[in-house]
TrEMBL record:
<feature type="domain" description="Ribosome maturation factor RimM PRC barrel">
    <location>
        <begin position="109"/>
        <end position="175"/>
    </location>
</feature>
<dbReference type="GO" id="GO:0006364">
    <property type="term" value="P:rRNA processing"/>
</dbReference>
<dbReference type="InterPro" id="IPR002676">
    <property type="entry name" value="RimM_N"/>
</dbReference>
<dbReference type="Pfam" id="PF24986">
    <property type="entry name" value="PRC_RimM"/>
</dbReference>
<dbReference type="Pfam" id="PF01782">
    <property type="entry name" value="RimM"/>
</dbReference>
<dbReference type="GO" id="GO:0042274">
    <property type="term" value="P:ribosomal small subunit biogenesis"/>
</dbReference>
<dbReference type="InterPro" id="IPR056792">
    <property type="entry name" value="PRC_RimM"/>
</dbReference>
<comment type="similarity">
    <text>Belongs to the RimM family.</text>
</comment>
<dbReference type="GO" id="GO:0005737">
    <property type="term" value="C:cytoplasm"/>
</dbReference>
<feature type="domain" description="RimM N-terminal">
    <location>
        <begin position="15"/>
        <end position="96"/>
    </location>
</feature>
<dbReference type="GO" id="GO:0005840">
    <property type="term" value="C:ribosome"/>
</dbReference>
<comment type="subunit">
    <text>Binds ribosomal protein uS19.</text>
</comment>
<dbReference type="GO" id="GO:0043022">
    <property type="term" value="F:ribosome binding"/>
</dbReference>
<keyword id="KW-0698">rRNA processing</keyword>
<protein>
    <recommendedName>
        <fullName>Ribosome maturation factor RimM</fullName>
    </recommendedName>
</protein>
<keyword id="KW-0690">Ribosome biogenesis</keyword>
<dbReference type="InterPro" id="IPR011033">
    <property type="entry name" value="PRC_barrel-like_sf"/>
</dbReference>
Length: 178
């Protein structure tokens, strides 16, 4: 089974979206979705923390899809001008409110900071980020400098030990030379 990773960490919260441009004149905003469960995260009544913090918290009044773009209506935001003031605001939810995941499925914030080891136990580096670009990629800052992108699939990352603070990277030939 592949190891899907969802949401992006920020201290005790995870980023689930970023507000983009206003849509229309009634205060709706476009949202760059950064979660794999937008129906849950942006359900009417959901309260979202913000970064910068002074712009929130924001309560979702409604959501709808316009093609591939998520549109949010927010309590108290009823004009294009008010919506424009929220542009580039990150939307967060507390980590404590995240649902439990199945085995072999992880949130990004659980992976960032883990030590990446080779099968023989040699330290490869530290997971600095998770990128989602068609495939999930671990960004590993290598011991001694440099960066390595590791596909986050079971064949290459067979072990993730959250309690132990590490994961094992079993690289195919040539991956470490990139």
């Amino acid at each position: 089974m592949d190891h899907p990773a969802v949401d992006i960490a920020h201290d005790d919260t995870v980023v689930v979206g970023r507000i983009g441009r206003p849509h229309g004149v009634r205060g709706e905003v476009t949202v760059e979705v950064r979660t794999d469960d937008p129906a849950l995260r942006f359900a009417p009544g959901s309260v979202l923390r913000t970064e910068p913090a002074g712009r929130g918290p924001l309560t979702v009044a409604g959501h709808r899809w316009n093609g591939q773009v998520l549109l949010l209506a927010l309590d108290g935001v009823d004009s294009r001008e008010a919506a424009e003031q929220l542009r580039d605001t990150e939307l967060h939810v507390p980590v404590a409110e995240l649902p439990a995941l199945e085995d072999d499925v992880f949130y990004d914030h659980q992976l960032v900071g883990l030590t990446a080891r080779l099968p023989d136990g040699a330290e490869l580096g530290t997971v600095a980020a998770v990128r989602h670009e068609g495939a999930d990629l671990l960004v590993v800052h290598r011991v001694g400098g440099g960066q390595l992108l590791v596909p986050f699939v079971t064949a290459i990352v067979p072990t993730v030990d959250l309690a132990g603070g590490f994961l094992v990277v079993d690289p195919p030939e040539g991956l470490l030379d990139l």
